[in-house]
Design goal:
It is a single chain. This protein is an alpha+beta fold and about 325 residues long. The protein is built from 13 helices and 9 strands. Strands 1-2-3-8-5-6-9 form a 7-stranded antiparallel beta sheet. A two-stranded antiparallel ribbon has the order 4-7. The N terminus is likely disordered.
Length: about 325
């Protein structure tokens, strides 16, 4: 009796290929030169977990119909962004202020009729069945954040900055040469490792109560985050941000911490120090130039804050 061949490529990848007048070969779609450059790779490991690697630049935005609409899904989305080594070479005009991070969204936050295919995309998307994940852990007595996420019963969104252990796994997914016979198995293990390590980070969050999110509130919180990060030389004033957001200060602080796992000022300071590290290492700026550019009038204070976040003094870091 002939065994039915399991689907190993996501339907959306096939639809994207058809839209571009090409085809998927061994789970990979190369973008035709007339449409842009780069590639998409997609893998359905089993009924519980799938992954897509998207790293391309298109000449114009496209929209395709979501082939999964109408299908009952309980998939949680893990969207890793700004983590692919080819990102900057593909999109020369992309702002450098792009900290590697991952979005985690319950299925009710990710149900759309149409999927936009943006001109500049560099992400790894992993979808995992919530019931499958829920069956792996006993979280009954701790971690309200993970309980709420894995129950997948309300619209929730979290964003987590990428730590070095997560970046290392991403690098292995993208660059490790693997024989075709082992590829699906290797990538599934790495995808599950990414998800596991990410859940370990989320489990550290201390929120005791989570609030369902709506698109308007999410857009507002992200707009306030961008507003804050555009002016790293000026510490955020909660009252002013709340007025711009048309929210009470308490709601703004509560939703920001729920999404990002950090208070507004702590998030600002962490991002500020990551930018300082980038200025020192990539831009080769002096310690004094970096400190003054980021709004510090006292370089000793800058050095102390930098060491608290990065683990070494700025001068030492610039030479490392």
């Amino acid at each position: 009796m002939e065994t039915e061949k399991l689907q190993t490529e996501p339907n959306v990848l096939t639809k994207f290929a058809h839209l571009l007048g090409t085809e998927v070969r061994n789970g990979r779609l190369e973008i035709p030169e007339k449409f842009g450059k780069g590639y998409c790779a997609g893998f359905v490991f089993n009924e519980h977990i799938r992954m897509m690697i998207l790293n391309y630049e298109l000449n114009e935005d496209l929209v395709i119909e979501n082939p999964r609409i109408g299908v009952s899904m309980r998939m949680i989305l893990f969207k890793f962004q700004n983590i692919l080594p080819e990102t900057e070479s593909l999109s020369q005009g992309k702002p450098l202020k792009a900290i590697p991070s991952v979005f985690v969204a319950t299925s009710s936050m990710n149900t759309v009729v149409f999927i936009p295919i943006h001109t500049h995309t560099a992400t790894i998307n992993i979808e995992v069945d919530a019931d499958y994940l829920n069956g792996l852990f006993n979280l009954s007595d701790k971690s309200p954040v993970l309980q709420s996420l894995l129950q997948n019963a309300q619209p929730l969104l979290f964003e987590q900055m990428i730590c070095p252990s997560l970046q290392k796994i991403v690098d292995e997914i993208v660059t490790e040469p693997i024989a075709e016979v082992f590829e699906l198995y290797f990538l599934r293990i790495k995808a599950e490792e990414l998800v596991c390590r990410l859940l370990m980070e989320l489990e550290k969050r201390d929120e005791q109560r989570l609030y369902p999110l709506n698109p308007h509130d999410i857009q507002t919180i992200y707009a306030m985050k961008e507003r804050m990060l555009e002016h790293l030389e000026t510490p955020p004033v909660i009252k002013d941000l709340a007025v711009c957001a048309n929210m009470s200060p308490s709601k703004l602080k509560r939703l920001f911490k729920q999404i990002f796992g950090n208070s507004i000022f702590s998030y600002y300071q962490e991002f500020r120090m990551k930018e300082a590290a980038r200025f020192l290492k990539e831009e080769k700026l002096s310690v004094s130039d970096v400190g003054y550019q980021l709004g510090f009038t006292n370089l000793s204070h800058f050095s102390r804050v930098f060491e608290e976040h990065i683990g070494m003094k700025p001068k030492q870091y610039s030479r490392s």
